[in-house]
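SAMPLE LOG
Freezer: B-3
Tube label: C17
Construct: single chain, 218 aa
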Amino acid sequence: MIRSRIPTLGVQATLLHVGEERTGVVTGNDAAPEAVLMLEIGSRRVAREHFRHLSPTEGELEHAIATIEYEVARVGPMLRNRSTLFATDEVFRQIATTAGVPAGASMILRLELVEQTFGRFVSEALGQSPRSNALPLDRESAATLLILREFMHDLQFGSINVEVSPTPMELSAIEERRSSWCRAAPCSNMDRHSIHEETIGGLPESSASDRESPVRVS
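STRUCTURE (predicted):
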């Protein structure tokens, strides 16, 4: 599905999906993935394990960042080639809109906007600036923002292409793609399910403001 939306054939692509309990990463070219990896972080999991308060404290943010960085570091070895980052999750569209990206079928969210949005979230969470309705993030959305920020920052992705969800017509093509990917990989049973769910955007249950914040952002 993602491949059909990429205008230049042969581009190396990395697909990111943040599930509730785990995060899936698939990277490859055309119909065959080069690598599939499941990370032990997710929106609900990070919120449950690290965000004890409605507005996370400095210590909670620090611990969440450390956990996410540890998992994201596992992705580095699988990204041997320059890659374009994609996602289809609706929460990424919400984050992109919050960051000021015009709504559309395909939205390009740049790292600097992610950093600015993250900085605003930290500033509001720590009470350094008044709360704004322009940043409507619950704990799980905030955890997704944090995962996205660390993923892009640590792996040096300058932007992420946020695509619309698949149409019903694309779902059969996704199933066919999943089968071909698993034949090429090959996949374990979990990998087969993960690739299918990852491609359609749902895994099983599975800036100045940054510098001013006491929360570590590197």
